[in-house]
What we know:
Blueprint: H1 2-13
Amino acid sequence: MAKAATEIALALGRGEEVPQLGLEIATTLTVRESTAPPKPKPKPKPKPKQ
């Protein structure tokens, strides 16, 4: 990804036309056992009675 971005930036800097202005790369998400679940949100404190 960095190589493609560098090549596009250099070509634009030289005033050349680039065949593409974007690059879409397939990615995957790997969930591992070491990934902790999100922390629970704290419960709101009760309002004091007046």
